[in-house]
Amino acid sequence: MEYMTIQKNIGHSPRKMRLVADMVRKMRPEQALEVLSFTNKAAAIDVAKAIKTVLANAGQKPGLVFKSIEVNEAMKLKRYRAGTAGRGRGRPYVKKMSQIKIIVTDEIRDETKKLSLRKEKNSKLLF
User: Fold this and answer.
1) Residue 12: CB partners within 8 Å, gap ≥ 6?
2) Can you tell me the distance from the alpha carbon of 52 to that of 55, in angstroms, rounded to the nearest whole number?
């Protein structure tokens, strides 16, 4: 069974959020939360909140793994910084926001099955 959460309009740029998401993509959700608690990035707090949400949606079932973690661009806030262009004009800048979509599943991945079969095969060859 798959469980999903989408967090929209998070106040960090997608580029910075992807750094944190890439770090925990191959981990188990419980391990990812532990690593994120010690990560020195502001985006780690929002990624941890999204992981906690998807675990709550799943009901804290054992054996969950990430199927996908996507970080995409959300809406942008267009702002003006007054006094930086001279002569009373404003200079525009854009505040980028992101959205994160996390899907977890309790099904065993094919890769995990292949790895376990390889280990069994190699152990038979050794003995």
Assistant:
1) 42, 43, 46, 97, 98
2) 5
Domains and CATH numbers, the chain: 2-126 (3.90.470.10)
**Whole-angstrom Cα distance, residue 20 to residue 61?**
24
Question: Is residue 14 helix, strand or coil?
Answer: helix
Could you tell me the two tokens for 85?
């262009």
Helix, strand, coil percentages, rounded to 5, for the chain:
40, 35, 25
Q: What angle do CA 100, 73, 57 make, to 5 degrees?
A: 15
The 10s digit of each residue's pLDDT in 102-126 is: 999 988 765 555 566 666 666 665 5
pLDDT in tens, 44-92: 999 999 999 999 999 978 889 999 999 999 999 999 998 888 888 899 9
pTM value is 0.80
The H or E element that residue 94 is part of is strand 90-105
